[in-house]
Amino acid sequence: MEHHTDVLIIGAGTAGLTAALELAEKAKVTILCKSTLGEGSSLYAQGGIAAVMDEGDSLESHIQDTLIAGDGLCDEKAVRFTVEHAKEGIEWLISQGVSFTVDSSDNSTYHLTQEGGHSYRRILHAADATGKEVQTTLVSLAKAHKNISIYEHYNVVDLICHQRKCVGAYVLNIKTKKVETFAAKATILATGGASRVYQYSTNPVVSSGDGIAIAYRAGCKVANLEFNQFHPTCLYHPKAGSFLLSEALRGEGAYLIANNKRFMLEIDSRAELAPRDIVARAIDFQMKKYGLECVYLDMRHKSKAFITSHFPMIYQSLLKYGFDLTKDQIPVVPAAHYTCGGVMVDQRARTDITGLYAAGEVTYTGLHGANRMASNSLLECLVYAKAAAEDITNQLDNWTLERDLPKWDDALVEDSEEEVFIHHNWKELRRFMWDFMGIVRSNKRLARASNRINLLRQEVFEYYSDFTITSDLLELRNLVLVAELMVESAKRRKESRGLHYTLDYKHKDKRYLKPTIIRPAKSL
Question: Options 3.20.20.70, 3.30.420.40, 3.90.700.10, 3.40.190.10; which CATH number does 233-336 get?
Answer without folding.
Answer: 3.90.700.10
